[in-house]
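Hey team,

Filing this mostly as a record. A colleague (T.K.) asked me to run one chain through the structure pipeline before their review meeting, and I want the input and output archived in the tracker in case anyone asks later how it was produced. No errors, nothing strange. Just documentation.

Input sequence:
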Amino acid sequence: METKICKCCGRELPIDDFRVTKLGRRNTCNECVSKKIADAKKRKNDGLTFEEELERAKTLRLQDFTPRELMTELKRRGYDGKLTFTQVIEIDISKIGE
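Output structure:
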């Protein structure tokens, strides 16, 4: 039987437990995909009104947003067009291998 390892949960599962897309099989098993969808719906329906979400977002600094959240927030605030950003990640290599 052919198997595949889920990139999300790390389990080795039968190939039939992975959805088929135009490009082939997904790297995430059906169970993990379902959990992600359910979590997203739960976050979306957490009981906050649009005004409450907007007020909460105003208190966050832009650096606290993920790129996707930032795009969504700017669109909510009425911005339109292109957003270009540069992400800087600092890694202290002096502590690697200790």
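Quick notes for T.K.: Residues 30-44 form the longest helix (15 residues). The chain has two domains: 1-46, 47-83.
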